[in-house]
Structures are given as structure tokens and as C-alpha cells.
Amino acid sequence: MSSEIGLNRDFHGEENLPSNRSSEEGGKDATLSRGRPFAKMGKKKEELRQLSGRSEGKVKETMHNDFWDHLKEQLTATPPDFSCALELLKEIKEILLSLLLPRQNRLRSEIEEALDMELIKQEAEHGALDVPYLSKYILNMMTLLCAPVRDEAVQKLENITDPVRLLRGIFQVLGLMKMDMVNYTIQSLQPHLQEHSIQLERAKFQEQLNKQPSLLDHTTKWLTQAAADLSTPPSAALDPPDSSNVAGPAPSEAASNSEPLSPTMVLSQGFLNLLLWDPENEEFPETLLMDRTRLQDLESQLHQLTILASVLLVASSFSGSVLFGSPQFVDKLKRITKSLMEEFKTRPEEAMKTVSEQVSQEIHQSLKTMGLAALSSENTSSLTGQLENIAKKENCVRSVIDQRIHLFLKCCLVLGVQRSLLDLPGGLTLIEAELAELGQKFVNLTHHNQQVFGPYYTEILKTLVSPTQALSAKVESL
Predict the structure, then answer these.
(1) pLDDT digit string (tens) for 185-243?
(2) Are 250 and 428 in contact (CB under 8 A)?
(3) What are the domain boundaries of the chain?
């Protein structure tokens, strides 16, 4: 988690709630899952054995539902049994206290007094428990302590009169409030956590390096290959001759190959090469082993965006700016393509055949709705044929889009994501939001990695670039 917080500036926790439960009857605080009040139910062993064969989520949901049913039976009994309800009130009190800041001593004393469990227990035993007062006090305190985004959820609780549904709703909202507090704490401490993560990872790596001096061999080979890639003249076949009418010119592409070699350029090229890593190659750089899974995820995301942008580019060349001027139409084509990405991994031809049929149908329907002329049978055949050809790795459009996305990521490493978005290579404007997400993840990962292993990279790069350039561009961060 330390590493994840270090490279993900938007890191946050999420409250996991069963999807088939309403917001009013949502999940409870994790304390219920641990079974403190639930233990009072005396669940039969036979029933637990029946539940053991189900998924963990279903088991928890069933246990929670059984608990609330049991609570309802207790409260409607004659006389009412408040044993479980008192346990829940104790849990609520503890959660409210946990949401207070250290300086909020007055509120702490107020909660301790208003929710005095000994006094409440005595009132319950004598039939004098003021449930409406306790409910109102708890909701007022939740309104005071919750983030603005939770105001509406707390207000909805005020309209619930059934005590069981109210308690259930209170726990659901308190769970969200606890997560809000966790995320606030993470954001407040993130700079310190990031620095701690950097120092910790570097210290652990140095400890391993002391025991195994050859630990940087693969890293050295990786950077050496990156330097060689930059020193090799670009292939004349980088962009197919007929690709200009499809994707347009790439900004500063030629200029990037004429710049003098520098440590930053070599390292950036090395990071880009990781997105094309041969899974059979076991010489993965040691300094990036912890990030290998993340890099594989980014590679998969890049591949999906390549297919998505290729589909949109081909479709736009047949339907023109009228249809593609509609965000709703573009989103519909995106959903069609994204829904078949999993199938594309194993059966690309079948997936693209389905995409071509659905995209063609959507274009025809949209043209008809707008009162525009339908595509001719010849154009329809050409459209579906070009879309189906995207399944081939050597497809012209797909190759160009792939190169353009790599160029965008290279710009992100040098200029940052926002500046790179201002001058997108041709064919990528329709996936700007998706590119921004991919670029930010890539930049965050590489930036954190450089902060941890920058000193090692600097020493290696001294042997790969001229001393003057090494001094002018010391590898600390991009």
C-alpha cells in the first residue's frame, strides 16, 4: 500500500457495499462483519454449514440480513429486548468518537454524555428508553461531522421511522463517513507517505544489492538497449506511405530523433520499451520488478485504446463530422467496441466482425434518424471490411495509431500530461479522456520509480552518454 500511495496521487479507499441492497438498507460498519453483535444471535451450526458453500459476499449478506431480522424480532417482542440494539448504539458511539479530530474535546465530552451506555442500559431495563431522542441526536451529530457530499444521505435517514431500517441506514452512512475520514487522512499525509515509501524502497533495494552485486545487470542491459534505440536512425518505414490521410502528421516526431542523447531521453525510451516487453524475456529490469504488474496493465490499456481509436478513425472517415460531432454517438461507438475487448484478446477476428456489424448498423440508424443519406452498399462493404482488418497486427491504421499513442506517452514523460494533450497526434482526439488517464498513470509510475532508483540510473547512464550531457541532465525526476 505504501508503494501504491507513492505512485498514485488519487489513491483512496472505497466502501464496499453489496450491489443488490438499497442505499437506505445498505451495508454496515465492518464491526458488524466481525460479528460482535451478531454473535448474540446463536446461529445454528447447520445453517452455517449451508452458507459455507456460497460465495463470501453472499454469506456476509445473508448473515447481515439475518441479524437485522433478528433485531426486528427483539424490538417487536413483548416486552422489547434491547440487547442487540444496545450493542449497536455502543458501536455507533465508538464510530462517532473516531470521527472527531484531536482538538474537538467539547464534542467528545458531549457524545460521551449523550450516549452514556450505562445510563441508556438502565433506561432500557426500566422501559424508559427515549428512542426518538437518541435517533435525533445521532443524526444531528452525523450531520455535523459528515462531509458535504454525505448531507443528502443523512437527510434521507431523517424520514425513516422504522427503527431497524433507521439503524441499518445509520451504519451504512457511518461506513461512508469513516472512509471519508480515511481518505482525508491519506491526502493529508500523502507527501510524508510518499517520501517514506521512496526511502523504504531504496533502502530495501540497497540491502539486496549489497548481498548480490549483480542485481543491476538487467537494469543496465535495459538502459543500454534504450540508448541503442535512440542512436539508431529511424526506419523509413515507420509510417506507411499511405497513412498520412488517415492519422495526419505527428508533431515533432522527426525532431525528437535528431536531439543529442541525454540521460532523460534514454530513461524515457527505456520506460516506453517496457510497454512493448516480450513476456518471454526474463531479463526484466530489477528496479521495476515491483511495478511489472502495473506496467502489464498499462500495456493492456494501451492496446485497447489502439483498437478503440482505430475503430473510431475508420468509422469517422465514412460518416463524417456530422455524426461524430455528437458526443452521444461517439460514446455509443466506444461502448460497442469496449464491450468486446475481452473477446478481442482470444478471438480478434470474431470480435472485430461483431464490432464492424454493430458500428455499421449504428451509423445507418443515426444517418436515418438525422434525415441524412444512407451509406451506399459499396461504402458499407468497405467500412465493415476496414473495421474487420483492424484485427490484424500489421493493419495500417492500427500501426499508425499505436505509434501515435507511444509518441503521446513519450511527450507525457517530457512535457507532462496536460501540455501533451494540447497537441495530440492525429487520430487521437476522440479518445482524449482515455489517453489522459493512461498518460497520468504512466507518468505517476515512472516518476515514482525515478525518485526511488534515480541514483542507480545516474551511475549507469554515465557510461552511456557523454560526461557533459550527464552533468546537464542528472536523473532525479522528469
Answers:
(1) 777 776 777 778 889 999 999 999 999 999 999 999 999 999 999 987 655 434 443 33
(2) no
(3) 2-190, 213-472
